[in-house]
Design goal:
By secondary structure, the protein is of the alpha+beta class. Helices cover 18% and strands 32% of the residues.
Length: 307
């Protein structure tokens, strides 16, 4: 996949010290800037909000970038919302951020517009995980593969009212690029809700297929394979089906009135791998021996200074 649109992680949490706002983070470009030193200008990066539990986006925060010229690039953010019951196109379009400069250096350039704040640029990868141990049959040694790596991050501070009238929402993200031979049509190439779901539960070409699906379709397409993976970890069919029903669709559940972490949204310090390892292994594996990084910022944009 084009690294510029390869999603590494998403996060959603209540803004520290402000119960009326939330922080949404979408990271792309693993190993940045090794494979790419810019955001893709013809792509669309979107954070999606479901506020009525139908696995369909009711609100989209759509991020687009200019071409990178002379070392500079700029972002625009739109909030697109549909009315309740609408099954048509987007309604109530609103430009919330205009011409925000992308940060390619160590100092974060933050753009404020009304109740919104936005950052985009090179930052320290916040994810922590013994990836090598995972790939070698859970032989964890506590070596954090991501400790010294960078990503391209997009951080959006939003008023909670922009997410929906009820605090219980679903959050996920996807990236879209022009279709081959049909450049005016955008197609989804990656998507993510909860961390590591595609990594753990899908195999072979199913990983690629999963990235192109919509959450509303995932239970019908992938339930059987998720159940099979859980049975392989020792769950009986009934329990495996119950857990798979919770994990699908792949949407991060978030109560923006709560400061609790994962499985309520996801904070940067949440040890999501330990939680998920314990779940999928039926308690046989409880930790990868890796903990949170020490370089998170205490305030916006929260992502650490790039290495």
């Amino acid at each position: 996949m084009d690294a510029r649109v390869d999603i590494t992680d998403i996060y959603a949490f209540q803004k520290p010290g402000d119960i009326n706002k939330s922080i949404l983070i979408l990271n792309v470009n693993p190993l940045a800037p090794t494979h790419a030193d810019e955001f893709r200008h013809d792509a669309r990066y979107e954070l999606l909000i479901d506020n009525n539990a139908d696995a369909q986006p009711d609100v989209k925060f759509s991020i687009r970038f200019s071409k990178k010229e002379d070392g500079h690039q700029f972002a625009n953010v739109q909030r697109l919302a549909r009315s309740n019951g609408s099954d048509g196109g987007d309604e109530d379009d609103e430009d919330v951020i205009d011409e925000a400069p992308v940060s390619f250096g160590s100092e974060p350039k933050v753009t404020t517009s009304g109740d919104y704040r936005f950052f985009a640029g090179l930052r320290s990868d916040p994810f922590f995980f013994d990836l090598v141990g995972f790939l070698h049959g859970f032989a964890f040694t506590g070596v954090d593969f991501f400790k010294d790596l960078n990503v391209f991050g997009m951080v959006l501070e939003v008023p909670n009212r922009a997410l929906g009238p009820s605090p219980q929402v679903g959050v996920w993200a996807h990236t879209l690029v022009p279709a081959t031979l049909q450049p005016k049509r955008l197609v989804q190439v990656d998507q993510m809700g909860r961390p590591a779901i595609n990594t753990v539960f899908n195999h072979g070409n199913d990983k690629i297929t999963f990235n192109g699906t919509q959450p509303a379709d995932q239970r019908g397409l992938f339930l059987a394979s998720f159940v099979g993976t859980l049975e392989g970890f020792g769950y009986d069919p009934t329990t495996a089906t119950g857990i798979a029903d919770i994990l699908l669709p792949d949407i991060l559940t978030f109560d923006y009135s709560s400061t609790a972490g994962f499985l309520n949204g996801r904070q940067l310090t949440d040890d999501v791998i330990d939680i998920e390892l314990n779940l999928v292994s039926k308690g046989a594996v409880t930790t990868d021996l890796v903990g949170p990084h020490s370089d998170y910022l205490p305030a916006f944009p929260f992502l650490g200074t790039p290495h």
